[in-house]
Amino acid sequence: MQFMFVEQSSENTAKDDAAKYDSAKYDSAKYDSAKYDSAKYNERSLSTLIRTLRLSQGYFSFVLVNCNSLALRQQILDRLQVNCPVKPRQLFLPESATTLYRTIATEIDGEQPPALMLLGLESVEAIDRLLVSTNLLCSEFSKAFSFPLVFWVTDDLLRKIIRTAPDLYNRMTTIRFISN
Q1: Cα separation of 15 and 155, whole Å?
Q2: What 3-state DSSP class applies to 24?
Q3: pLDDT band at 36 (very low <50, low <70, confident <90, very high)
Q4: Could you report the per-residue pLDDT of 55-67, keeping only the tens digit for each?
Q5: How do residues 135-144 score in pLDDT, each as one tens digit?
Q6: Strand 61-66 to strand 89-92: parallel, antiparallel, or no bridges (unpaired)?
Q7: Are 37 and 178 in contact (CB under 8 A)?
Q8: Which of the 8 DSSP states describes residue 139?
Q9: Is 168 exposed, middle or buried (0-12, 13-18, 19+ CB in 10 A)?
Q10: Which residues neighbour 158 within 8 Å (Cβ) at sequence distance 6 or greater?
Q11: pLDDT for 6 beyond 90
Q12: Whether 109 contacts 83, CB under 8 Å
């Protein structure tokens, strides 16, 4: 009698190592079959994101949303505003940001929004410094903030997070959207 061991993982929250992201490019052939498949995949991802935001109310969590298309990102953000019972606040990071913790603390000024979407990470000039400091302060975020912190990243930035801030990445729930 043979036994087959199957690794269980969620397609939207799988945490793979940097080498897999570098070499496989998310196995893009899997998603190229039809626009319908990517639309269906993105609908599941949107549902996962809404559920994650809803269930994280009152608690701190790191959420990583991987999306390469700025147009698709904006469509998702628009749909979140309409369909999500949790109305996330958006923070466009300045290019000059060097520490995420201080930037967020200054922005919210003691307020605890239902969720905070971090946009513009790919434009931060000192992104390595920002990621290293965030990696070192991972545990401090949960002491000061009681809401989900959502990082919107591209494939390139995702690889950089995996390499530069592995502790941070390991604490993140990952949700992926794919463009046609």
Answers
A1: 14
A2: helix
A3: low
A4: 999 999 999 999 9
A5: 999 999 999 9
A6: unpaired
A7: no
A8: H
A9: buried
A10: 21, 64, 66
A11: no
A12: no
Compute the Cα dihedral for 153, 159, 163, 167 and give only its sign. Answer: positive
Share of the chain above pLDDT 70, in %: 80
Rg (CA), the chain: 17
Residue type, 170: N
Amino acid identity at 119: L
**Strand 148-153, strand 116-119: pairing:** parallel
**Contacts (Cβ under 8 Å, ≥6 apart) of 45:** 12, 175, 176, 177
Return the C-alpha torsion angle 41, 43, 49, 53, nearest 10. -160
CB–CB of 149/179 below 8 Å? no
**pLDDT tens, 11-31?**
444 444 444 444 444 444 554
Q: Which tokens is 68 given?
A: 């390469």
